[in-house]
Amino acid sequence: MHCENKGENITELISEVVSHFPLAGRLVDVTPIVQGHINTTYRLVTEDENGESHSYALQTINKYVFKNPEDVMENICAVTAHLRKKIIEAGGDPDREALTVIFAKDGKSYYVDHRGEYWRIYHFIRGASTYDTVQNARHLYNAGYAFGRFQTLLADFPIHTLKHTIPDFHNTKKRMADFFAAVEKDECGRVKDVLPEIEFFRKRAEEASRLVDMQAMGLLPLRVTHNDTKYNNIMIDDATGEALCVIDLDTVMPGLAAYDYGDAIRFAASTAAEDETDLSKVTVDMHLFEQFTAGFVGATTGFLTKTELETLPWGARIITLELASRFLKDHIEGDKYFRIHRPNHNLDRARNQMKLVLEMEKRFDEMCAITAKYM
């Protein structure tokens, strides 16, 4: 069994955690999965008495980000149960098309260790992979369809039962106010080095609240939304290339459909990774944009309203602006939220997303025309 981590013996800790879950057989391997900004993830392999191996995904829940991990797990359990029921009714395979939570021996959906850290385990979906960059246009069409289908399958979910695991998560008006509050506080003395970047957001502060204001006026309804629709939160079937399962459900909450669509576009239709420092490489691939849009709109036809569909391009533009402000805010505050892997990593991410906003502004009419084409 191998696992690298600094500090206490992580292998012993994981063995202790795993002993509280009814896994098949004995633990034989632990491998860190270095992906994502928030939670720490490991792939577990067990071997039963017949020599058959079983795979699981073990995660800690980041308590700095999620103040009430019990609420996170309550949402996840409710949503996955609903999805599994819908998938079975449609003749699908719920074990591959939805996450399966492994409940601890005490009946809870998580285990709390001696340090007060929360752990959870899912079945690991074999024969499928996640990708940080788009492999081909067909993948992206399928990803768009998968995120659209995710919303459609949850159309009749009792939205009032969902907990707000991160209050005001995509309240872009408040996000912008929080950003400028962090600038004013300047707790790490970094503001003097990012004045041009701050001015970028001052010029776009009013635009950031456009969809939030429409929702407040009753023009956009709240939906059950994923709220972190990055391309690497889709499991792609290794054999068929089809989008299989939407993962990373920590931020499932009531929200706007345009933000789920927009966050996916921001991530998948960009021509560069979100921390690319050569900004000349950062633009919007309009072919990929169209592929994702065709899939997403196709899966939500008859579900989303005409106004929701018309505001999808705004969702892409505003959510990119929001994330850029969040990256810069985290840099200003000392990198507390998003994990960094090098100095100024969050600043690099912010500048990257700011460039993507500029590219979307240039191509906005084309984005709207493509969306209208598939309505």
Descriptive report:
- By secondary structure, the chain is α+β, with helices and mostly antiparallel strands.
- The protein folds into 2 domains: 10-62 and 100-126, Phosphorylase Kinase, domain 1 (2-Layer Sandwich); 137-374, Aminoglycoside phosphotransferase (APH), C-terminal lobe (Aminoglycoside 3'-phosphotransferase, Chain: A, domain 2), CATH 3.90.1200.10.
- The protein is 45% helix and 13% strand.
- The protein has helices at residues 10-18, 69-89, 94-97, 137-153, 172-185, 195-208, 210-216, 257-268, 286-300, 306-310, 312-333, 345-362, 364-374; strands at residues 26-33, 41-47, 53-60, 101-102, 111-112, 118-123, 128-129, 223-225, 234-237, 243-246, 253-255.
- The strands form 3 sheets. Strands 1, 2, 3, 4, 5 and 6 form a 6-stranded antiparallel beta sheet that branches. A 3-stranded antiparallel beta sheet has the order 7-9-10.
- A hairpin with a 7-residue loop joins β1 (26-33) and β2.
- α4 packs parallel to α9 (286-300) and α11 (312-333) packs antiparallel against α12 (345-362).
- It is globular, with a radius of gyration of 21 Å.
CATH classification class of the largest domain: Alpha Beta
Helical content class: 40-55%
* SSE arrangement, N to C: HEEEHHEEEEHHHHEEEEHHHHHH
Terminal residue distance: 52 Å
Content-based structural category: alpha+beta
Beta strand count? 11
CATH architecture of the largest domain: Alpha-Beta Complex
Largest sheet: 6 strands, antiparallel
Strand content: 5-15%
Domain unit count = 2
What's the overall geometry? globular
Uncertain regions spanning at least 5 consecutive residues: 1-7
What's the CATH superfamily of the largest domain, by name? Answer: Aminoglycoside phosphotransferase (APH), C-terminal lobe
Average pLDDT:
93
Radius of gyration: 21 Å
